[in-house]
Design a protein that fits this description.
The strands form four sheets. The chain has an eight-stranded mixed β-sheet with strand order 1-2-4-3-5-16-6-15, sandwiched between helices. Strands 10-12-8-13 form a four-stranded antiparallel β-sheet, with helices on one face. Helix 3 (102-116) links the parallel strand 3 (64-75) and strand 4 (123-132). The N and C termini lie close together (10 Å). Helix content is 32%, strand content 28%. With 392 residues, the protein is an alpha/beta fold. The chain folds into two domains: 7-178 and 297-389, Zn peptidases (Aminopeptidase); 180-295, Alpha-Beta Plaits (2-Layer Sandwich). Bound molecules: nickel (II) ion. Residues 100, 102, 135, 160 line the site of nickel (II) ion.
Length: 392
Amino acid sequence: MTAPLTAPERAALIATRRDLHAHPELAFEERRTAALVADRLEAAGYRPRRGVGGTGVLADLDGGAPGPTILLRADMDALPLAEESDAPYASTAPGRMHACGHDGHTAALLACAERLAGRRGALRGRVRLCFQPAEEGRGGAERVIADGALDGVDACFGVHLWTELDVGRVGLAEGPVMAAVDRFEAVIEGQGGHGAIPHQTRDPVVAAAHVVTALQTIVARTVSPLDTAVVTVARVTAGEPGSWNIIPRTARLAGTARAYGDETWASLPARIEQVVRGVAEALGCRATLEYERICAPTVNEPAMTGLARGVARDLLGPDAVATEGEGVRTLAGEDFSAFLRRVPGCFAFVGGRNAARGLVHPHHSPRFDFDEDALEHAVRLLEGVALRYLGG
Ligand code: NI
């Protein structure tokens, strides 16, 4: 069991989180954040590597005796969103906000690093601290991995503060806990003309409407009911603003596809293309599809998940660990998946919701915030998993 945070440790943790919250930085622009992290690591006796994968920071804690290496990861980036908050630590950067809790992840891993520094030379193995840039759909994980973050690493662990779970609870499930995220955009090309003379046109609006409907059958009729997937069309555009009697030449659709299982994930691009092109063609139009993989499914390895559950139960009590249901799995995505595809590991949801204090807003909402008691849970979970993995 790790020791509770001392009052000064707790005060420093909250102050760091609030400082980062007030100064949010977007993907690959986390210069102030990374400098704060690296300076503090240096002060704690680490020799941090700056500029990893762009704006990331890596530092190793050498245990002193031979043993495995476990990587602990925090993401540092904020979102392009205007914060709606009266909090004294609200964002000072217009149009930028820590609306996903990454400020808390960075502060928690930094506090964990400072606590672990006292064990330098007294562990079997090594702890690698990874402060990753650009988690929000910009490929930061792949960038730091390409820059050596996983070299010599045997296992990995990360946390996400989570307002789908009450503070004091931790979500830890084996297998897929977050989905693969894909993005697609389709252009449906027809032939424009007068709204009163449709037979002389090839109407891309009607074709787009049929495509949107037909896309719903992918999950309903081609994905196994025992697997999980989502196909969402989030944007439909056609015609000029103000037009009402003109059939346009093109219509555009944009959306996202999500899956847990690798087989389903692999099948989605071809299936979506087949539906988009086939339906458009049947209605006299022509369609092209642009398809992009954003991240892989986040899949927790059973042994590491069991280890993390043990730490969480010791920390917060046997009933605090949720293994099923809301707050434990989500079809949102997370690029920690890139680490988990290469080494065994686990990603935990640390409850941050507190309805009595109005801390109930979803991630990526302009009113997002979490109960700061969750920060200490995150610190001790990161620390506890590392120490237990290294046999400490
Ligand atoms: Ni996030």
